[in-house]
Fold:
Amino acid sequence: MLQYHIGCLIGQLTETSQRQDTVDVRKWFNFYFFDILSDFAFGEDLGCVRDGIFHEWAQVGVDYFYAATFVHQCHRFWPLNRVLALLIPPLVRDRKKRHSKVSLERVRRRIHSSPDRPDSMFYFLQQAEKEKLSKPVIEAQASILILAGSETSGVAFTAAVYYVVGNDNVYRRLCKEVRSAFQTSAEIKLRGL
Structure:
């Protein structure tokens, strides 16, 4: 599964770089991590890399992160937090509601499906049954699975690429190591790394 998603990402980066002067790797890494974490969590990717755009749920998730950050900052200014919360624009509050609705729909769809391979929800649901967790608790926790790490992983990869490309010695050394280990890009597999 990982090799498939990496192949899709490399294919899209190659195609995009041939059409444009610059490529927004941050965007593509975010697409990649939303796809792969969705596949791990729910047994299906979101198609972000394939389509070159955020799936509605991923976009809602990204929007929610920004809205949650704004709300969190309001609560830091006690005793003014309640007044500041009233000043939060309706669009920000709507993003939070939309995120909850879309996440709940996705989690419920996965709970009622039977993927052809075990995903993390499979194990999560087994454990939830053992612990006799309520349906609302299961739904709330499961919706966090995909969001916890998608954008942060994309940011980390973007930073790594930025620092490698910005440091000639590191870039040359990395190129030398990869090119001496593999004759063609098709030979690069996770097991060989």
Notes: DSSP finds ten helices and no strands in the chain. The chain has a mean pLDDT of 84. Residues 90-111 form the longest helix (22 residues).
